[in-house]
Write a structure and sequence with these properties.
Elements: E1 8-12, H1 23-30, E2 34-36, H2 47-59, E3 65-70, H3 72-83, E4 90-94, H4 110-115, E5 130-134, H5 143-153, E6 156-159, H6 177-186
Helix pairs in contact: 2-3
């Protein structure tokens, strides 16, 4: 990295926001230079409101930034990159939620996501280095579709194997590999 200053990690949670035992929350507790996009009080399903919250969080950070997004947070980053411009060191995009495909029961439907501005998924290359960490059995993102998103975004695809949605429901609180991937982005 050209800038010798250590980057700040900005955590970009998915639609369920902050979950105490989630790897993003646990990661944030271990890092010294970290911010998290705060949860929304209103318009919780609005993609535009989520993108604005991401931009506001970035505005509060001076210096280099690495984005660490999970699930719908990945889509927030993709939408943000279409609207805003700021130097980003890199982005770890973990378990992207394929908002164009039906989700299992208990999650927002495609029609709800479409009316709230999530569709279509932006497919232009991201203007910063990125790593997509994907699961081969994610109920919210078919591996082949996620692999295509990674190609479209110009991201490095990392197959994490059968890790579900890489969340507490899939057995993941700690995810040590996240630090390894963040370190790769910072180099």
């Amino acid at each position: 990295m050209a800038n010798s200053e250590n980057p700040t990690v900005l955590i970009v949670p998915g639609l369920r926001d902050h979950v105490a035992e989630h790897w993003q929350t646990l990661l944030a507790e271990r890092l010294s230079k970290v911010h998290t996009v705060p949860p929304l009080e209103v318009d919780r399903l609005s993609c535009a409101a989520r993108v604005e919250a991401l931009q506001c969080a970035l505005d509060a950070i001076d210096g280099p930034v690495i984005l660490v997004a999970h699930s719908a947070g990945v889509m927030m980053v993709a939408h943000w990159a279409q609207r805003y411009s700021r130097p980003i060191v890199g982005a770890l995009l973990a378990a992207p939620a394929d908002v164009e495909s039906p989700f299992p029961e208990g999650y927002p439907g495609t029609a709800v996501l479409e009316e709230n501005g999530w569709l279509p998924i932006p497919r232009r290359p991201l203007p910063f280095p990125s790593i997509v960490a994907a699961s081969s059995n994610d109920p919210l993102g078919d591996f082949e579709r996620v692999a295509q998103m990674a190609r479209d975004w110009g991201s490095v695809l990392v197959n994490e194997g059968q890790v579900g949605h890489l969340n507490p429901a899939s057995g993941y609180g700690e995810w040590p590999r996240a630090m390894e991937l963040i370190t790769q982005l910072a180099e």
